[in-house]
Amino acid sequence: MTSLHRTGARTPAVTTPAPAVTTAARDAALETVRRNIALHGDLYPDDTTRENRYEIRPAIPGFEAGANRGWTTSFWPGQQWLAYELTGDEEFRAAGLRHAADFAARVHSEQDLDTHDLGFLYSLGSLTAARLAPTESERDDARAAALAAADHLMRRFLEPAGVIQAWGDLSDPRQAGRTIIDSLMNMPLLTWAHEATGDERYADAVRRHTAQLRENILRPDDSTFHTFYWDVATGAPLRGATEQGAFDDSCWARGQAWGIYGFAINYRATGDERLLDASWRCAEYFLAHLPADGVPFWDLVYTDGSEAPRDSSAGAIAACGFLELARVDPDPERAARAQATAEVLVADLIAGYTPARSDDADALLLHGVYDLPKDNGVDEGTLWGDYFYLEALTRLAKPEWVTYW
Ligand code: GLY
Questions:
Q1: 214-233, pLDDT tens digit by residue?
Q2: pTM, to two decimals
Q3: How many folded domains does the chain comprise?
């Protein structure tokens, strides 16, 4: 990778991608999305591949195989909407619309909603259709589903702490008062609900939740905790802990990438410059802890020479985060640096982390990690890695692309 961070003096290995390289990468990715639609129909693939092949989401009690459950299903229609916007091909939009109907059914029948990830789910599953569906009634249905999801998300807002609880039933004492850095990406659903209804409760939740994360989940050395607990009775911040990282005080790579992207989009939503600063602090730490090929180990505690797996999905999320910073940072020099950095990160992913031929794998992006401590999805493709890789390619191809976040 080229020297990206402020004080770095690394030898360039990969420079910004030539247009032909990103065009070829985009074409290969679109071919895979098209093939996966044919493979899975309207069912949902599992969170990650197994040996680079997606299987249908397994059946569990109460849910049939391929059902819309869990936090990652929306990354699949998210890819279809990006593919539609890149190509104009109605096959992709029709697939995205069928999933939008399924997301409406999920929220209205209250299936598997005990999670803050309603933001990930409904930003991609419904708000895409609310803008891009061809008929007014489809757009209305998608808006109603998104608003119902936003209201469910608001039930998780805890007073007096002013945070949205991440996981679990709100009566579960093990999860009480816990939030996680990923939650920053769930805020745009509330920002949209505020814009759609004028109800200040949504905007207030975004302001207070993001302020609590900036003050507590971002550490003084600019690394981040994965998760953080607040006292539900007093609202006092208690302690950081990890769930998917190496240990409580380490820096989980994907969490740091969620920080770059999540603080940037919430700066756009709130205008609070402290969130822009928080995004850059996450960004500088991330860049300073990358190995030579520009794709992070799954936890930033590992450095060059380690045998630890990489998490390419963190690289893709970070690339989107830098592309967002390039859009929103009012300082032209910093914005230009963010753009150049993103282009290098994407080039590094294309060069070393994509299938040699599209049909070698069902994943767009290889070598991600879901949850290494639980030995879940290690060195595999992931639905979100595929989504953010395609989002980065879309942003590079269409600078006018209207964000889904
Ligand atoms: N949001 C969960 C994860 O990144 O694994």
A1: 999 999 999 999 999 999 99
A2: 0.96
A3: 1
